[in-house]
Design goal:
heterodimer; A: alpha+beta; Butyryl-Coa Dehydrogenase, subunit A, domain 1; Butyryl-CoA Dehydrogenase, subunit A, domain 2; Butyryl-CoA Dehydrogenase, subunit A, domain 3; 3 domains; four-stranded mixed sheet; four-stranded antiparallel sheet; 8 strands; globular; B: alpha+beta; 10 helices; about 55% helix
Chain lengths: ~375, ~300
């Protein structure tokens, strides 16, 4: 155990800080939340700057144009960019963190060449078409049909919760290619160009009043079979290969942000009981920060722990407790959201314990895969 | 930066675990603390860890293992004040309830930034016939004598004491989770192992989550104590004591629930862990006090 970072890591941090100090003042103003074309331009411009500076695809292997950074360097990168209030990965999220790594592991040489460089340069934006109105926590029950017609699949169905669907060029879509097989065995993973005929994208309004997500309706959409990644009906496994890219650093930016918000809140607190509660929230974030570092240490050693699921569950619930405290501290000042980051916080964080596997699903995963408890009848 | 055990630390952990497995089975634990327990732990090197050149991170690993076995005794102060033998510690400000009053060679009285050494044999102690934790006998001392001034870094003592206590609490939280998980796999009701029901499974998952977060915080505190020049040690220790203390209590309560009626019996060990967790929350700063300390650290400029 050691608190200090070694010299090479500190050099990486210093170089990154110098670059951030130089580049951040030159960025254009951040566009409003709902201005999707402007958001895409802003986020992809940032991605291009990362690319030119050698920070694009930090966790991707060097042979695919990534930096091949160590887990510790990834931790430092997310920590420093969050502290400097640099732009978030934004519309590049699915391409860089999910679709790209999936192609690296499972794509054909042609698929890799067509997409990976464009993702890294911020030229291609991806969305995700996994969830359906009838397939949420039970994702494998998805029903969007892909019927073979010569060298094409014909898609019919409906997807929901497609982040960045409004501005994406391409989607990673899970479709049912064998309706007769057990539900995990009849799914395929497709690259879906979002400009194909028969695709209709409808923005979905959330509790924030804005549209971060879309619904996607597919009517007789013809997709080349060559767009399938991995074998037919092997899509469930293909979806899970990206788990090996999960270093437990997924919540670093959010944790840095949460620790900053705690400092922002403390001068507003008058009540000793609320102040004590804030101390508890901050302690939980500090503990999760330590757990993140511990996960990174273990992954640098090649040891795997229960880390990522634990952080997801504990962080999202702690962040909601913090959001609730924000409302109580602000009292009637909390009655407006505009210009009130701490109120927006409470609304936004309602999604945290639902998205990407609800807290209840995370507890099942911990109970069954980590503690080895018997499964419930399903 | 490394918050995982080094190969040497894995060996240290396994070594102390082997000693405790061989010599401190459940019956020995229930027999309570005595000179024999002290001597065997001393022989294993527990109290001389610092004198023998081990880091605070190493000490934290050993105390986690002691916590897993719920080993009784004034272990933390006996390491911090190793030259004085079996040593207790008490705050002059608080009500003077002294732990293990009959077993002490020395009693350290902390008073703000000062410390004094008191001869426990000269004290008038009103022994409690029914301590909260029967493995932590206590006695009330109406008037603590001034004692001999002790030249120590009292802030350092409080910091290290809180860190080692947090490590012990982590061990309690960890082991009681194991006990509850084992039981939930064996206990059958409604024709199924109760651990298959989400109502139980989710309690157990939360126990694991509390333990893992507490473990990271405790190891971070140990690493901070070994790098005092880096700053942030006080906040890190406060976080560890708070998270490990609450994990020990919450996991003890959850385990009692999982064990059902058996959890309310003297026979099942769960109450030993929960009661020790309650005792240790009163030592080197409660979770509440440390939450206040973290809030103070938030308000102070620069961390």
């Amino acid at each position: 155990m050691q608190y200090r970072y070694d010299e090479a890591d500190e050099a990486f941090r210093a170089e990154l800080r110098r670059w951030l100090a130089a580049v951040l003042p030159t960025l254009p103003p951040e566009p409003p939340r709902d201005a999707w074309a402007a958001r895409r331009a802003y986020d992809t411009d940032w991605q291009r700057r990362l690319y030119d500076a050698g920070y694009a695809g930090l966790h991707w292997p060097a042979e695919y144009g990534g930096r091949g950074a160590s887990p510790t360097e990834q931790l430092i990168f997310y920590e420093e960019t969050a502290r400097a209030r640099a732009p978030y990965v934004g519309v590049n999220f699915v391409g860089l963190l999910h679709a790209g790594p999936t192609l690296i592991e499972e794509g054909t040489p042609e698929q890799k060449a067509a997409h990976l460089p464009r993702i890294l340069r911020g030229e291609e934006v991806w969305c995700q078409g996994f969830s359906e109105p009838g397939a949420g926590s039970d994702l494998a029950s998805l029903r969007t049909r892909a019927e073979r017609d010569g060298d094409h699949y014909v898609l019919n169905g409906q997807k929901i919760w497609c982040s960045f669907g409004q501005v994406a060029d391409v989607g990673e879509f899970l479709v049912r290619t064998d309706p007769g097989a057990p539900k995990h065995k009849g799914i395929s993973w497709l690259i879906l160009p979002m400009d194909l005929p028969g695709i209709e994208v409808r923005p979905l309004r959330t509790v924030l009043g804005s549209s971060e997500f879309s619904e996607v309706f597919l009517t007789d959409v013809r997709v080349p079979v060559a767009n399938r990644v991995g074998a037919e009906n092997d899509g469930w496994r293909v979806t899970n290969v990206t788990l090996k890219y999960e270093r437990g650093t997924a919540f670093v930016s959010e944790l840095v942000d949460a620790m900053r918000l705690c400092e922002d809140l403390v001068p507003l607190v008058r009540d000793p009981a609320q102040r004590r509660e804030l101390g508890r929230c901050a302690a939980e974030f500090d503990g999760l920060w330590a757990l993140t570092k511990r996960n990174v240490s273990q992954s640098a050693r090649g040891v795997s722990g229960p880390g990522a699921t634990v952080i997801k569950l504990a962080y999202t619930e702690a962040r909601q407790r913090f959001g609730e405290l924000c409302l109580r501290v602000l009292d009637r000042e909390a009655l407006h959201v505009d210009g009130n980051e701490l109120v927006e916080e409470r609304l936004r964080t309602l999604a945290l314990t639902i998205a990407a596997g609800s807290s209840q699903i995370q507890r099942n995963i911990i109970g069954e895969r980590v503690l080895g408890l018997p499964k419930e009848p399903r | 930066m490394d918050l995982d055990l080094s190969p040497d630390q894995v060996a240290l952990r396994d070594g102390i675990d082997a000693v405790l497995t061989a010599r401190f089975g459940p019956e020995r634990i229930r027999a309570g603390f005595d000179r024999g327990v002290y001597d065997e732990l001393a022989e294993a090197g527990v109290f001389t860890l610092r004198a023998d050149g081990f880091s605070w991170s190493d000490c934290v690993i050993v105390f986690e293992q002691l916590g897993r076995r719920c080993v009784p005794g004034p272990l933390v102060a006996s390491l911090l004040f190793q030259v004085h033998g079996v040593t207790g510690v008490v705050e002059r400000a608080g009500p003077a309830w002294v732990e293990h009053p009959g077993a002490l060679d020395a009693l350290v009285v902390l008073d703000g930034a000062a410390a004094a050494l008191v001869d426990p044999r000269a004290l008038e102690v009103e022994h409690s016939p029914w301590p909260l934790d029967f493995l932590t006998p206590v006695g009330r001392v109406a008037q603590l004598p001034p004692g001999e001034p002790l030249d120590v870094d009292v802030a350092g003592v409080r910091r290290a004491g809180a860190a080692l206590t947090a490590a012990f609490q982590l061990g309690l939280a960890d082991r009681v989770t194991e006990l509850a998980v084992e039981y939930a796999k064996e206990r059958v009701q409604f024709d199924r192992a109760i651990g298959s029901f989400q109502a139980i499974k989710h309690l157990l998952a939360d126990m694991l989550v509390r333990t893992e977060v507490a473990r990271a915080a405790v190891y971070a505190a140990g690493a901070h104590l070994d790098a005092p020049a880096e700053g942030g040690a006080d906040r890190s220790v406060a976080v560890a004591k708070l998270l490990a203390g609450e994990a020990a209590i919450a996991n003890g309560k959850a385990a009692t629930q999982v064990f059902g009626g058996m959890g309310y019996t003297w026979e099942v060990d769960v109450h030993l862990f929960l009661k020790r967790a309650w005792v240790l929350d009163t030592c080197f700063g409660s979770a509440d006090a440390h939450a206040d300390a973290v809030a103070d650290a938030l308000a102070a400029p620069g961390r």
